[in-house]
Amino acid sequence: MDAMQEVTPIPRRPLHEEATDRLRDLIVQGRLAPGARLNERLLTGQLGLSRTPLREAFKVLATEGLVELLPNRGAIVSQMDPVRLSESLAVMGALEALAGELACLNATEAQINEIRALHYEMLAYHARGDLAGYFKFNQAIHLKIVKYSGNAVLFNTYRHMNGNVRRARYMANLSKERWDAAVREHDAILAALSARDIERIKALLSDHLAHKLSSVLAELKALSTRQAA
Amino acid sequence: MDAMQEVTPIPRRPLHEEATDRLRDLIVQGRLAPGARLNERLLTGQLGLSRTPLREAFKVLATEGLVELLPNRGAIVSQMDPVRLSESLAVMGALEALAGELACLNATEAQINEIRALHYEMLAYHARGDLAGYFKFNQAIHLKIVKYSGNAVLFNTYRHMNGNVRRARYMANLSKERWDAAVREHDAILAALSARDIERIKALLSDHLAHKLSSVLAELKALSTRQAA
DNA sequence: GCTCCTAGAATTGCATACAAACTAATTTAT
DNA sequence: ATAAATTAGTTTGTATGCAATTCTAGGAGC
Questions:
Q1: How far apart, in whole angstroms, are the C-alpha atoms of residue A150 and residue A147?
Q2: In this predicted structure, what is the pLDDT of residue B225?
Q3: Residue B221 CA: distances (Å) to CA of A11, B146, B214, B228
Q4: Which of A187, B42, B57, B200 could form a disulfide with B192 if both were Cys (CB 3.0 to 4.6 A apart)?
């Protein structure tokens, strides 16, 4: 009996949750461009549901900062304002620093080894020059550090903010130099975590996020000038 | 013409926003107790609206952690789990520390003076032994520090988490000693902000939040044992 | 007496209907 | 010809209706 329930965890999800996740993915992946109007009739057709769950999804995504609600004028995909992006990364820096500290205190050796495994997988993609694969494992590592802090509220808060930043990553490329530097920073972060060196990991994560910020901003700037041309 | 529009900025707010705010207040003030079922038919009657905007409000409050959605079984006011509360205060400590740092860098003298004014109003309530008034200005000061960090994302993130913590404050009393100590801590925080001493304000705010945590937890524990009796 | 089962009622999830607001295009007036 | 006004057509905001699920009583069986 228990076994059967385990194989079918909860196959039927609420439609509004499904809609929220689908829309979030579309926005994060840039398939719904910043500024795009979210026409309800159109989206209900494409997603195969009615307006009610769709509009519930809008409200949730608005709290995550991914869409903007214009009263009586519908919803649009929020713009990727460089200022907002900077602010988000500053906050995420503080959150990750806290996460690093807590992970040093609370993570098990097995959990650190799991992060180490992800680290090596990431290195493999870096060696192959596969940026998309690299990002995927990079993301996973940062998420795991926050997860293994053991603070569920921190994890949720971080995940919410992450959507907005991932959106930028999807568009931003990365110079070879910055990429190499980021990998070296990850080496140091893993080392600090293994040594459970709290002060060091806090400093490293703060710096890492600050660097991430400047590289994303640079790419965003390059992107906008490219579009202007 | 313009003058008339200024007196009536936008009197008609979307109903679902109004509902969200009203429900949030009810929950934060404890008038909707933790664990209480949120019957839709009942609430639509009391709030004078239909189920659609009400359910939209549920979704938003769920992202703030104030209500819990049980698929096919409705919504309940989320429990005030001591663990969750601790975690929230840890995150808020990190956020406030960042806010203090940024406020030292970015706040104008006028803004710091506004915080100073709130501080003195708070001292007045402390002198009178008026806990409710004290909390009100205490809250206002913390919010202003975050606001004057100049980071809007930080402000929003902080505000979202704050609901859950304010809820605890409404229930928690405060020992005279802890109250006096908190006031002294606020003195020091204001001094550090005035001196724009970043390292000091970060340390002070982190400690202040940590103390807040232990006092809230102590009160919560006292409350639950009182209820058990 | 207790557990299990089974209508019936209540409640939720989603779809649809209707009204208010907005958009845009044509007409009218200047 | 330009600008304001009017009106048809969308689109959104909210209410309501219907089907599916869950809850509650009451009774049958052990």
A1: 6
A2: 78
A3: 39, 29, 10, 11
A4: B200
SS3 call for A68:
strand
Give dist(CA B160, CA B32) in Å, integer.
18
Question: What mean pLDDT is predicted for residues B118-129?
Answer: 97
- Contact at 8 Å (CB) between B24 and B64? yes
CB atoms < 10 A from the CB of A11, how many? 6
Q: Are B128 and B121 in contact (CB under 8 A)?
A: no
Cβ of residue A13 near strand D, that is under 7 Å? Answer: no
As a whole number, mean pLDDT of residues B174-198 equals 95
Instruction: Give the phi and the psi of residue A130 in degrees, each rounded to 5.
Output: -90, 100
- B149 interaction partners in chain A (CB closer than 8 Å): none
Asked if B51 CB < 7 A from strand C, the reply is: yes
Specify whether the CB–CB gap between B201 and B104 falls below 8 A. yes
pLDDT value, residue A11: 55
Distance CA A91, CA A87 (A): 6
Q: Assess whether pLDDT exceeds 70 at residue B6.
A: no
**Among B111, B137, B109, B115, CA closest to B124:** B137
- In 3D space, the residue among B188, B96, B185, B189 whose CA is nearest the CA of residue B147 turns out to be B96
Which of helix, strand or coil describes residue B75?
strand
Mean pLDDT of B85-112: 97
Other CB atoms within a 10 A radius of the CB of residue A76 amount to 17
Which of A65, A91, A98 has its CB closest to that of B90? A98
Mean pLDDT of chain B: 91
User: Are residues A91 and B152, on separate chains, in Cβ contact within 8 Å?
Assistant: no
Sign of the alpha-carbon dihedral angle for A189, A193, A199, A200: negative
C-alpha to C-alpha distance for A43 and A48, rounded to whole angstroms: 8
Residues of A in contact with B161 (CB under 8 A): 153, 157
Residue A223 predicted with pLDDT over 80: no
**Distance to chain A for B57, nearest Cα, Å:** 8
Residue that is written with structure tokens 């002060």 in the block: A199
Which nucleotides on chain D have any atom < 7 A from a protein Cβ? 11-17, 21-23
Nearest to B57 by CA among B49, A12, B152: B49
CA-closest candidate to residue A21, choices A63, A67, A61: A61
Query: Is B65's CB less than 7 Å from nucleic acid strand C?
Result: no
What pTM was computed for the model? Answer: 0.90
**Gap between the Cα atoms of B19 and A57, Å rounded:** 17
Q: What percent of chain A has pLDDT over 90?
A: 80
Quick one: DSSP state of residue A9?
A: S
B73 DSSP 8-state letter: T
